[in-house]
Amino acid sequence: LRLNPFLMDPSSPDSLMASLRGQGFEVKACEDATACFRVEGGPSPVAQSPEYLRGEIELQDESSQLVAGLVDCSGNDVVVDLCCGAGGKALAVAPRLGPQGHLVMYDSRAAALRRASSRFERAGAMSKGPPLSFATALADLGPWEGKADWVLVDAPCSNSGSLRHHPECKYRLFEDAAGTNEFEELQ
User: What stretch of H or E contains 29?
Assistant: First the structure.
């Protein structure tokens, strides 16, 4: 989990951890990422917790948080997230961009960008974060050519990183030859 700095003070995560523990969740601080927690068990999915529903926490692996932390952007930078999926890394970067900055998210899958938009809305980033642009076609990135200060590329844009949490999905990816061919083309 990642604490959402749009709605919570990331320097004092203790009350959030105490609240989750009070609901029966087994919560530990992550080893390397700040404002990061690992939920190792609980009475229900953490996505059903009041903290998640209020947008105070985000579901995100520590490794993704560490990658987002490497983006040392300033308040007026332009950050482009290619292959953004549901926008987790972009959402982790967004609090470091100010109203003069800009966050551009690209994914060829419109459904992924809809999830990203919903995620940004729930987190309060639509109103408190930097200006946002969403693109599903490479041509939509034209206005940003040569203007990006930072570019995140989570290649090969296949969503295969989520297999760790949903290993059953690998069978759907390769159920038939058409699925295998599509995956190969994407890579």
Answer: strand 26-29
